[in-house]
Amino acid sequence: MPQDITIYLTDREGELHTLIAPTDMQMNLMEICKAYELPVEGTCGGMAMCASCQCYVESDHPLPERSDDEEAMLSEAFYVEENSRLGCQIQMTDAIDGLKIRLAPSE
Amino acid sequence: MIKTDILIIGAGPTGLFTVFEAGLLQLKCHLIDSLPMPGGQCAEIYPKKPIYDIPSHPEILAGDLVKNLEQQIAPFQPGYTLGESAVSIEKTAENEFIVTTDKGTQHQAPVVAIAGGLGTFEPRKPPLKRLDFFEDKGVSYIIKEPEMYRDKKVVIAGGGDSALDWTIFLENVAASVTLIHRRNEFRGALDSVEKVQHLKNEGRIQLITPAEVTTLEGESKLTSISVNKEGEILKIDCDHFIPLFGLTPKLGPIANWGLEIEKNAIKVDNTLDYQTNIPGIYAIGDVNTYPGKLKLILCGFHEATLMCQSAFKKIHPEKRNVLKYTTVSGVSGFDGSLKQAAKSTIKTIE
Predict the structure, then answer these.
(1) pLDDT in tens, B259-268
(2) To the nearest whole angstrom, how far is the Cα of B98 from the nearest Cα of chain A?
(3) Which residue of chain B has the CA closest to A79?
C-alpha cells in the first residue's frame, strides 16, 4: 500500500495548512490544493498554461526540473521568484514527503 | 435590437451545443462572447490540445471539437455578437430580458442561458505601479487600431505569439518597436520567432532580454519606462507600452446580476432544469454549480439538453411536446436543409 505524504502549505494570509496527499492517485499539487478547497484556481486545468497555481518552494526537496512549458509560462507570470513553480507540474511522490510551499499572490 | 428565443452568453462548447438542442425544438438562438471567435477556452487557451473524454471521440483536438460543433449547429443559423461582453440585464414589461454588451449592442429574449465558463477573458495585467493610471494614456493591452501607433515609439512586453505577432506588425507602422521579455526563449510559432530574429539582426527592432519592465514614468501620460536587464536599469523613452501576457477569465459583471453565486459560480437547480434563482435565466456548463457538479464538457452538453426542454415549456406553455430522436425525425434546419436517415429499400423478390 502506498503511503500518503504530507505537504506543508502557507496560504496568502500566512496561515499554515497541513495537507495529506495520496501518491497513488496521479494527483499534482494544484489538485491537492483544490481538494482542500484552498484558493487555487487551476484555470487551465493543469496544462501549465496559466499561472494560477504558482507557488514558492521553501524546502530543499529534489523536484523534477521545469519543463519547457512550465518555464515558458513562468516567464510570463507575475511575482515570479527563483523558487517559483507551477503546482500543477509537481506530482505527488514519496520523494517530496514534507515539502514546504507558499502560495504566490493571485494575479 | 437583436431578438431571439434563447440568448446564450458564452460561445464555448456548451453554448454552441445549446443551439443544436434548441434548434431541434424549433427555438432560435443568438450567442454573445467576449472573444472574437467561438470556442471559449477550447479556442483561446488550448486549441491544439487533445481531449480524451468526449463520448465517441477517443481523441479530439479542442479546436476540432469547436469546428465540429459549429458545423453541427450551422443548419440552425445562430446569430453571433462576438468580441463584446454582456454587461447588464433588465426585464421588460412582457417578462423578457434585455441584455446589453459593453459596446452597447442590445439583445432581447424570453430566455437567457448563461454558458459563460470561467467568465469573460480579460487581459492579464502585470503588477506595475500606476499601470491603471496610464491606461488609455499610453498603456493598452489589446491593439484595436494599429494606426494609433503610427510614427510612435512603442514598447511591447511578453514572450508569446501575440507579443511576437504585434512586434512584427508594428515594426512597419511605429517609429520604433522595443520588445522586452523575461528570458531569451519565446513560446510562439517558429515562423514568428524567426521573423523577429531577422528584424533584430537587421536592427529594425530593439530586443531586450532577459529583462523586465519595472516602472512606468510620465506626468499626465506615459513618456518612458524603466527596464531591469540582469541588474542593470535601462530607461526607454516611449509613447506606448503594450503588455501582452495573454488573457485570464473573470466572472465579471454577471456576478452583479442578482444571481445566487457560490464559489465564483452560479447556483442552479440541478434536480430540474439548471435554472437560476431568477426564473428564465439558466446557467449551464462550467459557470454553474450544484451538489456534485463536475466541470466537464460532456456534463455541459447534458445540462444544455435538459435546459432547452425547460426553455421550450417556458416559451410555449400552451404547446405539448415529446422528446424526438434525430435518427427518426432527422434534423430540419432553419436554412431549409433537411438531414435524415436514408429510407429503407423495399423491393419484391419474384
Answers:
(1) 999 988 999 9
(2) 30
(3) B127
Which part of chain B has CATH 3.50.50.60?
Answer: 2-121+248-339, 125-245
Kindly report, residue by residue over B12-60, the tens digit of the pLDDT. 999 999 999 999 999 999 999 999 999 999 998 889 899 999 999 999 9
CA distances in angstroms from B83 to B37, B70, B122, B204, B233, listed in the order given: 7, 17, 11, 32, 38
pTM of the model: 0.84
Supply B170's cell numbers: 508594428
Cβ burial of B316 (10 Å; 0-12, 13-18, 19+) is middle
Residue A76, domain extent? 5-103
Of A106, A107, A77, the closest CA to residue B212 belongs to A77
Q: Is B246 helix (H, G, I), strand (E, B) or coil?
A: coil
Name the DSSP class of A57.
E
Rounded Cα–Cα distance for residues B178 and B183 (Å): 15
Q: What element of type H or E holds B314?
A: helix B297-315
Q: Which residues pair with B99 in a beta bridge?
A: B89, B107
Identify the DSSP state of B253: G
Decide if pLDDT at A27 tops 90.
yes
Residues 183-202 of B with CB under 8 A from A: 183, 185, 187
Question: Do the beta carbons of residue B199 and residue B224 sit within 8 Å?
Answer: no
Residues of B in contact with A52 (CB under 8 A): 248
pLDDT score, position A107: 80
Count of structural domains within chain A: 1
Q: What is the CATH number of domain B125-245?
A: 3.50.50.60
**May I ask the CATH class of domain B2-121+248-339?**
alpha beta
